[in-house]
């Protein structure tokens, strides 16, 4: 009976040990798998790409005219204008002359003093001036604004305000009757304009600008829904060759022209300019965006035969790395080290700097899990 009971107990203990082994093995495997999951989920990479934009622009000629006549449909309006311009020459030369001015005559005595025409007055430097006319200085009074002129030509007579004696009077009388000036004498030397070809050319340009403004006033308001540029065509200026070399303070030129008004749809020009700007992107790796709100349009010339106008269109923008570019897709970085990522990215256009962060710190390569890699593109000025 005793032997039989021992055999039965031994038979029961074996399955229990087996189940314990299975449970322990499962627990260990679960812990290992959980650790692997935690380890794999903790592997992350953040790739910061700093880009710098490059300026680009469109600067092209565009023909505007009636439908079928030009690249862009528009309206051309012509207005006949004429006008004249008074212009002062820049070139000058100095000419000596007779200085003139006015003085105040004083008489501190009780006796009137008559002075004849050309009576001399003398300053302290010995320079003579003469009265333009005869006058009588009242007793105990003065006479203002008496016109005088220099005895000789020359710049030395352009003197500052001073006191004058009258040499023709005796010494005691000179103390009682004398002259003073309150303003400088002028005219001993003067500058006169000398007309040159450059003056005529400049005057013609100013006349052209005046005619343009005159024509614009007549054309504005006729096309309220359109944008416009204006220019001058067929400018004709009166022959001014005979003026060259003449000494004149100013001269007048006259001219006629046609003011050309070019009216166009601003949206059409913007769309065309945007299309041309987009072509500056070499591939999908680049992204182009406008730098200005709208293009700048300037008048070129007018073709009377075709009835079209040439305008210059300028539209600026910047080109930079496209954040959606295939060149920076996440799978390209899987398994690469920091240095490999940096070298690759810095070889791309518009990339200014690269910073790669790997987590945990002991990681050496970028994880190969799409959701564990972040690519951040930042543009700097």
Overview in brief:
By secondary structure, the protein is an alpha+beta fold.
Task: List unreliable stretches of 5+ residues.
Answer: none
E-strand count: 20
- Cα-to-Cα separation, first versus last residue: 97 Å
Rg, Å, rounded = 48 Å
Molecular shape: elongated
SSE topology string = HEEEEEEEEEEEHEEHEEHEEEHEE
Structural class: alpha+beta
The proportion of residues in beta strands is 35-45%
Helix proportion range: 10-25%
Largest sheet: 7 strands, mixed
- Mean pLDDT over the full residue set: 86
What is the overall number of helices?
A: 5
Task: Describe, in plain words, how this protein is organized in 3D.
Among the domains are: 1-42; 67-90 and 195-265 and 294-314, no CATH class; 93-191, no CATH class. Helices cover 24% and strands 41% of the residues. The protein is built from five helices and 20 strands. The strands form five sheets. Strands 2, 3, 14, 15, 16, 17 and 18 form a seven-stranded mixed sheet that branches. A six-stranded antiparallel sheet has the order 7-8-10-5-12-11. Strands 19-1-20 form a three-stranded mixed sheet, with helices on one face.
Keywords:
5 helices, seven-stranded mixed beta sheet, transmembrane, alpha+beta, six-stranded antiparallel beta sheet, membrane, transmembrane helix, Baseplate protein J-like domain-containing protein, 381 residues, single chain
